[in-house]
Design goal:
Number of helices of chain B: 0
Largest sheet of chain A: 7 strands, mixed
Order of helices and strands of chain B: EEEEEEEEEEE
Radius of gyration of chain B: 14 Å
Helix content of chain B: under 10%
Number of strands of chain A: 11
Largest interface: A-B, 22 and 23 residues
Structural class of chain B: mainly beta
Strand content of chain A: over 45%
Shape of chain A: globular
Distance between the termini of chain A: 36 Å
Strand content of chain B: over 45%
Order of helices and strands of chain A: EEEEEEEEEEE
Oligomer: heterodimer
Radius of gyration of chain A: 14 Å
Chain lengths: ~120, ~110
């Protein structure tokens, strides 16, 4: 059981370049999330999805786009990378948090360390 | 919106000592409080959680307490071991809207042998 898998694990981009971070989960979770982790700031929600074909903005969505074409995948895109987007990115998934009969624990991937120079 | 404050930012203890990490939250509508442990190079992993209808929960050497009136919740680790060294995050989840998790800023715990 792989859980939540993120690719790539590391990436260096030049300012203005674009890239897509991939997240895949094999737990049949409805909800998926993208967070960024910066020193002293904890984890901040970028975008999230409550089901296939749906996405919504989190706390810090500017400069990012997402897509959820398949239930198991959640993609995070940077169209024109900026140094301020240097961070560690985490994907997570969970069952629907409105269904209290289910374990609503969020499972995290291992992270993608992105450096924008 | 919800705001979660976490203290201390770093905590050093000797093996066998107890460690306590404290968090406060701002929104009384929050009803779920998980704690995550993040080891170096890995993603956060849930270690214990508590819901607002419970005051305390224990799982072996770790326990969490919740004071709804004061909007405080704390993580207690007893008989600490070197493998407890990690970054610990508290979080709070609102009972309204999307019910997103809001994380604290993390505590780096170092347990020295």
């Amino acid at each position: 059981n792989a859980g939540v898998t993120q690719t790539p694990k590391f990436r260096v981009l030049k300012t203005g370049q674009s890239m897509t971070l991939l997240c895949a989960q094999d737990m049949n979770h409805e909800y998926m999330y993208w967070y960024r982790q910066d020193p002293g700031m904890g984890l901040r929600l970028i975008h999230y999805s409550v089901g296939e074909g749906t996405t919504a903005k989190g706390e810090v969505p500017d400069g990012y786009n997402v897509s959820r074409l398949k239930k198991q995948n959640f993609l995070l895109g940077l169209e024109s990378a900026a140094p301020s987007q240097t961070s560690v990115y985490f994907c997570a998934s969970s069952y629907s948090i409105t269904d209290t009969s289910l374990n609503t624990e969020a499972f995290f991937g291992q992270g993608t360390r992105l450096t924008v120079v | 919106g919800e705001n979660v404050e976490q203290h201390p930012s770093t905590l050093s203890v000797q093996e066998g000592d107890s460690a306590v990490i404290k968090c406060t939250y701002s929104d009384s509508a929050s009803n779920y409080f998980p704690w995550y442990k993040q080891e170096l190079g890995k993603g956060p992993q849930l270690i214990i959680d508590i819901r607002s209808n419970v005051g305390e929960k224990k799982d072996q050497r770790i326990a969490v307490t919740l004071n709804k009136t004061a909007k405080h919740f704390s993580l207690h680790i007893t008989e600490t071991q070197p493998e407890d060294s990690a970054v610990y995050f508290c979080a709070a989840r609102l009972n309204t809207g999307f019910q997103k998790l809001v994380f604290g800023t993390g505590t780096r715990l170092l347990v020295s042998p």
